[in-house]
Amino acid sequence: MRIFVIAGAMAMLAACGTVRGTDTATMGDFTARAQEVAERWEGSPEERGWRAGFVPLETLALGTDWRKAPKWAPVSELNSVWKLEMDLSAAQPAPAVLNWEDGSTLTVPVVSARAAYDRMSKPRAFVDEKCPAAGCRPLRVIGATMGEATVASSRGPVRVPTWDFRVEGVPGPFRRVAVDPSAISAPPQWRKGEMQEAFTYETVTPDELELRYGHGTCDTTHGARVYETSGVVVVDVDVRPEDVTVCNAMMRIDQIKVKLGGALGDRVVLDSSSGLPLLRGEVGIHLAQGFPHFDPRQT
């Protein structure tokens, strides 16, 4: 299914949602798909985690400031060449409070220093840059303290506790999010055969969005439409291929504005093609393309 979103003044009611668009010939297909996406999302575990839980959109291994690190450090880290030069406590610290920019909070359990180190030093499944012939220099861990960092999440930037490991010969600490995996929800996963086409959005006015979407270089955008319920906004950009003999396979990223029937409020914006939620702002994270099977709890 191709991309679509809202552009015209014609509107119609469908089930418990409102549909707006311009092409009546394909309105039925869009409405059916949008209803499926909305029903799949609303009331699901993915929705509960996305709205009220902690869904990190980056790995729990935050690394260090590589600009200040010696050249051997990233190669050693990539190859998991760690050496523990101290005793680490296996005692679980007191719970921590996560803090979002809108003032919302969430109390979560925290892993021990030993558990964080064990995960950080676990050998990678694959390595694309082998150690030099003479071997990598060990990352000798000589200290561990609790700290804080800001990470991207489904609810926006959030302050989280970290374990900061001091490594001999490296100026800055190696940091790892200290939230226990039991308190972390995985990002929604795309399904086989589905592709994410609308990626992110900006709020132009309370009832108008600007979408960033992808399409082929030989495609033409014919407008957009939207399906609205009280809890979600499903968007779809109508992109159709041009009648050409030869075209490359490159993707272009464009923007298109969309007018809603009312203020977006706290509703989640969903891509009709993949069923995945769109992220707000220029975050550079595409749930399907960047993280097709990403689960931060395993990082």
Explained architecture:
This protein is of the alpha+beta class. Helix content is 14%, strand content 34%. It has helices spanning 27-41, 45-52, 72-78, 113-120, 287-290; strands spanning 11-14, 17-20, 61-63, 82-84, 96-100, 105-108, 139-151, 158-167, 174-177, 198-205, 208-216, 219-228, 232-241, 251-259, 268-271, 279-280. The strands form 3 sheets. Strands 3, 4, 5, 6, 7, 8 and 9 form a 7-stranded mixed beta sheet that branches. It has a 5-stranded mixed beta sheet with strand order 1-2-12-13-15, covered by helices on one side. Strands 14-11-10-16 form a 4-stranded mixed beta sheet, with no helix packed on it. The protein is globular, with a radius of gyration of 23 Å. The protein starts with 10 loop residues before the first strand and ends in a 9-residue tail after the last helix. Mean pLDDT is 83; it is low at 1-20.
